[in-house]
């Protein structure tokens, strides 16, 4: 903190942002007060936070400082709402220069901090099999026990179904309802062969085999997911009918399948491979077979190629939801015929509320498992995701499509839908 002086920075911030729905508190006890109440307080706990921002202005620098606990908020939920909705006034070049100088003076003679251990920067062509594996393993291969702290007992890591004809009371009930909804839409019958693309910890394939008598192949490119999924298949007594394989969707070559479920996987495909993805699933389906594609879709910021540097480096590298229209276009280009589309935007917001509450409840256990940096990142990530669904930035859709020919389309659609 040698030669650090926050007064010029506080003065410039107050002048640049005369209306502030937030307060700033610095490590020396000084503050830039909010101009209205209630308002969250963002705490800048060390000059090292400012050095991160100087080195990487904007979201990445702030994200690095937050991950390391150098920036915090007294109310994280309120802070997220401010971060999402605050529209600062234009800053003139001269004022921006003064802010930069004040930022350097506040940082003082502070050595540049290291980058957070949880940050990942991928290189090479996007959405190759090798790069996708690295991205997925950064997200999933941290600890199965960590995910078990906030997911339901089957570790279903996708939107639960709260808005059906019955009203689930627990996350477990809502996830069961979602898995059953997928099975019903696919029209699963005993003896059929089903592919689950991005099977996670095996919740759907176990459900489909147990409740509907199918044989199933689940594929994931996460080694830790596959390890636990295989254990769960064995415990369920389904080893003769359910296989879990570590494989990319581009590596599956033992079709055809009567039905394919792709649940919370299309977000990892990207614009670069969406047409290949759709064509591969079409090729793996029998004529007359049915596909259900369940995934997040953007409702805004269509021209953005990634989800911003924080998500890209810390949460899910290369994970970019596409507009529903682009996903539909890819499916239709293969010859798949869409029969039904259902939006579950409110359902995912509700699911995320449950995940957030469970992770907060098990905060100390989570830190012991994966370290405080990663837990801070995930607490922020889950709230940002919830915010996206609550504000209409994104939605999630189940798209049901058939490959023409063969058996008649199976599966009852929701009541009132034709």
Give a written overview of the molecule.
By secondary structure, the chain is of the alpha/beta class. The protein is 44% helix and 16% strand. The protein contains 16 helices and twelve strands. The chain has helices at 7-16, 47-55, 59-67, 76-85, 93-107, 129-140, 144-148, 171-186, 203-212, 223-235, 274-284, 309-315, 324-334, 345-361, 363-370, 372-391, and strands at 23-26, 31-32, 41-44, 71-73, 193-197, 215-220, 242-246, 257-263, 285-298, 322-323, 337-343, 394-402. The strands form two sheets. Strands 5, 6, 7, 8, 9, 10, 11 and 12 form an eight-stranded mixed sheet that branches. A four-stranded mixed sheet has the order 2-1-3-4. Helix 12 (309-315) links the parallel strand 9 and strand 10. Helix 2 crosses helix 5 (93-107) and helix 8 (171-186) packs across helix 9 (203-212). The radius of gyration is 24 Å and the shape is elongated. 42% of the residues are buried.
């Amino acid at each position: 903190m040698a030669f650090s002086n926050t007064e010029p920075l506080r003065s410039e911030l107050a002048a640049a942002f005369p209306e502030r729905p937030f307060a700033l508190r610095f490590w020396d006890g000084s503050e830039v007060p909010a101009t209205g109440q209630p308002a969250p307080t963002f705490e800048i706990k060390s000059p090292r936070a400012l050095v991160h921002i100087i080195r990487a202005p904007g979201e990445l620098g702030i994200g690095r400082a937050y991950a390391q606990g150098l920036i915090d908020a007294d109310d994280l939920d309120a802070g997220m709402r401010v971060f999402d909705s605050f529209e600062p006034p234009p800053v003139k070049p001269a004022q921006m220069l003064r802010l930069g100088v004040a930022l350097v003076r506040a940082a003082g003679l502070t050595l540049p901090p290291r980058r957070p251990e949880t940050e990942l920067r991928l290189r090479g062509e996007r959405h190759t099999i090798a790069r996708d594996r690295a991205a997925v393993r950064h997200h999933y291969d941290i600890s199965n026990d960590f995910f078990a702290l906030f997911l339901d007992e089957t570790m279903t890591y996708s939107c639960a179904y709260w808005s059906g004809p019955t009203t689930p009371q627990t996350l477990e009930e809502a996830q069961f309802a979602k898995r059953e909804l997928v099975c019903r839409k696919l029209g699963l019958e005993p003896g059929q062969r089903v592919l689950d693309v991005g099977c996670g910890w095996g919740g759907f394939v176990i459900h489909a085999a147990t409740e509907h008598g199918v044989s199933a192949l689940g594929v994931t490119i996460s080694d830790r997911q596959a390890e636990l999924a295989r254990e769960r298949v064995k415990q369920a007594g389904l080893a003769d009918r359910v296989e879990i394989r570590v494989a990319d969707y581009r590596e599956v070559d033992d079709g055809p399948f009567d039905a394919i479920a792709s649940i919370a996987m299309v977000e990892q495909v990207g614009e670069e491979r969406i047409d290949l993805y759709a064509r591969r699933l079409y090729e793996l389906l029998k004529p007359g077979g049915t596909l259900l594609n369940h995934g997040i879709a953007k409702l805004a910021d269509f021209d953005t190629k990634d989800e911003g540097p924080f998500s890209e480096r810390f949460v899910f590298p290369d994970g970019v939801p596409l507009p529903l229209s682009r996903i539909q276009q890819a499916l239709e280009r293969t010859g798949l015929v869409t029969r039904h589309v259902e939006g579950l935007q409110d359902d995912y917001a509700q699911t995320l509320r449950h995940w957030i509450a469970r992770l907060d409840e098990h905060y100390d256990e989570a830190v012991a498992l994966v370290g405080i940096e990663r837990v801070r990142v995930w607490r922020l990530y889950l709230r940002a995701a919830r915010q996206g669904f609550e504000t209409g930035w994104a939605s999630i859709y189940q798209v049901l499509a058939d490959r023409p020919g063969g058996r008649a389309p199976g599966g009852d659609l929701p009541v009132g839908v034709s």
